[in-house]
Amino acid sequence: MTATRAFATIVVLSFLTARGIHAADVPAGAVPEIACPADTMVARKYVVLLANTPAGVQFECRGADETTVFTVAYNDRGRGAEKIARYVLDARTGLPSALEIDGHDTLNVPIRERFTVVHDRGVWSNSVEQGSTSSLAGSFYFPLDGVPAGKAVLARALSRNGGHLALLPTGEARGERVFSMTLNAAGRSTEVSLYAMSGLDFAPTPVWLDGDGRFFGTIDGWTHIVPEGWEPAASQLVKAQGEWQARRSREIVARVARRAENAVAITGTRVFDAETGVTHPGWTVLFEAGRILAVGPDSEVAVPLSAQRIAAAGKTLLPGLWDMHVHLDADDGLLHLAAGVTSVRDLANERSILDDLERRVRAGEALGPRVVRAGFIDGRGPNQGPVQAFASNADEVRGLVRDYAANGYAQVKLYNSFDPSLVPVAAAEAHRHGLRLSGHVSAGMDAEKVVRAGYDEIQHMVSLFWGLIGGVDSTNQRTRMTAAASRGGSVDLRSPGAKALLDLLREHRTVVDPTLVLFESWLTARPGHVDPAFAAVADRLPVQVRRQLFRGGMPAPPGRDVEYRRSFKALQRMLALLHRQGNPIVAGTDAMPGFALHRELELYVEAGLAPASVLRIATLDAARVAGRSHQLGTIAPGKLADLTLVEGDPSRYISDIRKTRLVIKDGVIHDPATLLAEVGVRTGL
C-alpha cells in the first residue's frame, strides 16, 4: 500500500477562488470544475479516474519565468483534495527555486506550503514544519502536501542530476527510467516512459512521463490520472505497471524467501494455545511441507535427525495473525508478513487486483498473506463507493451476490449508499449461497436495523453509535464521522438504548469489526505531533512516510478537542462491553499494513481485555469467522504451519507482539528484519 492510501482519510470539497481557481458549486460526487490561474495558460488537462469513472480534473498551466502551475481537484464519496501548486524551476537543474501550494488536504485542513531560495539559503514552511538550510547543492525540496504531477517534477530533476538527489527537509531520492512503450487510444499513439523513484514510500514510486519528460499520468490502486482523451489507454498503463511490479516481486522472492527442504523443529519455545489461552513453556513444534506434524513438550516430540532445528528459548510461538479489514495493494505483502500477519480479509477491492495478487503468491512469485475475499456492493449516487459493483434493485443485488458466490468469495459487504429496503434481499441471497453479510450502516439505518435486516457483522465501531447519537442520514463519510466525533463521547453506554443494542448484538451473535486504530488516528492525532497509532514505529519508517505521521487527524473545531478524544474512549468502552458479554470481535485495521494490527491489539488491552483474549481474537476467532478454523487459528497437528515467533510473551505483555523474530507461511521461513529492509523500514531489534 502506498503512503497515500495508507493515510487516506475523509475530506470534503472547498474552492480556491482566492488563488484564481473558479469552481461551480457542485454537489458531493460531481466532478469539480477548476481551471488554470488567470496569469497562466493551459498546457494540458488531465482526468482523474476513480474505478475508471471520472472523479476530478488536473491542469498543467504555464506561466512566465519558468513557472509551472498544477491545479487538481477530485471527489471520492464526498472526499478528495483540491490544491494549486506553483513551481519556479531552475532551467538547468530542474530544482525548485520557489514553490507555493495552497488548498486543502484530505482532512479538509487548509494548506499553505512554501519553499523559497533567499541568498542561496533554502527556507520552507508547511502545516507542521519550518526550517532552512544553507547547503542547497543538489537538494530538492519535497513538499508535505504535494500534487500528483509533482512526482514528474522530481523525476525530471533526478534525470538531470545523475539519478540521485538529497531531499529537503530530510531524506534522499533515487530514480531510474524503467522502460518506454507506445500507448494507443482513439487512433492516436504516443511514447511514454515509466519512471520509478525510491525514498518516498515503502516501495518505489512510479510516475508516467511523456516523450518530453513531462507528467503524463499515475496509476495508484483505484485512482488513475491521464491526459484528457487518453482515458481508454489507462488500462494499458495498468497492465504495464503491473508487469513491472510483478518483476520486482519475483526479484524480492529470490532474495529473501527461504523454503525448508526438510522438516523444521522449533524447540524450547512457549507455545500459545489459542483455544484455552494457555501458554506452554518448553515445547516443540515440528512441521514439514507447510503442515504441522507434532506439538508438545520438548521431551515428547521426536525430532528427525534430518530436521532443521530452531532454538527458541525466551520466545513465544503463535498461530499466524489475522488482519480482518484490509484493502490489499501490490506492495502490502512484505509489511503484513514482517508483522506476523499470515492471513487477511479483503473487504473491498477490484477483482482483477486480487486475482493477480493471489495468483502470484500461490505461484511463489510474490510474498503475501492468505486472502479471504468479501464482495462489495453499494447503491448508485453522488457518494457511491470506489468499486464498480452497484445495485439499485433486487435483481441487481441477487445477481452480484450470485457472482461473488460463484467466484469463491466468503461474504458480501454493503456500503453507505446501499438502499435500506434492499438489505433483507442481500441478506437472504447471501445466506442462500452460504455467504455472510456485513458492511457499513447505510444512511437512514442504524445498527439495530441492519442486524434485524440480516447483517452477520458490522464494520467499524462508530457504526454502533449512529442510532445512539440520534441518527445520521447522510451518505457523505465526512459528515458521518464528524457527527460521531462530536457526539459519540456523550453517549451513556448504560442507557436503555445502549443496553437494548448490546442485548440485540448478543442475541444475534453479531460480529463487530472495530478498526480502533483507524479512529485513534482520526480522532486523537494532532498537527505537529506524531500520530499516536504509529508512535512506537515512527522513527523506523521511511522518512517521507514518517513526515505524514505529523499531519494530524480530523481537525477538531476550536474547543472541541476534548470531545473528540472522549469519543474515541467511548469506542474503547463499547469494545469492553461487547467482549464482556461474549460478543464475537475480529481484529481489523483498515490502515497501514502490519504495524496497524499491532496497535489495534494494544488498544484492545488498553480497553480492558486480557492479552491472551486479544491474541485469541487475532488468531482462532478470526479463523472461525473466516471459515478457516479447520486449517488455521491454532497450533495443532494437521493444520497449516502458519506461525509467528516473537520475543517475550505477548499473552502477558501484548506489546511483545511487535518483537517478531520469525514468520512461517506455506513452508517458507521469513526473517522479518530482511522483509522490512526491502521496504525501507529499520529493524526494531
Mean pLDDT: 89
The proportion of strand residues reads 25-35%
Fraction of residues in helix: 25-40%
What spatial form do the alpha-carbon principal axes imply? Answer: globular
**N/C terminus separation:** 24 Å
Task: Determine the number of helices (DSSP H or I, runs of at least 4 residues).
Answer: 16
Order of adjacent strands in the largest pleated sheet: 8-7-6-5-4-3-2-1-15-14-13-12-11-10-9
Q: Sheet with the most strands?
A: 15 strands, mixed
Could you name the ranges where pLDDT drops below 50 across 5 or more consecutive residues? 1-29
Task: Give the helix/strand class.
Answer: alpha+beta
* Rg result: 25 Å
Say how many strands there are. 31
Description:
- By secondary structure, the chain is of the alpha+beta class.
- The protein is globular.
- Among the domains are: 3-177 and 218-231, no CATH class; 378-431, no CATH class.
- 54% of the residues are buried.
- It contains 16 helices and 31 strands.
- Helix content is 26%, strand content 29%.
- The model is unreliable at 1-29 (pLDDT under 50).
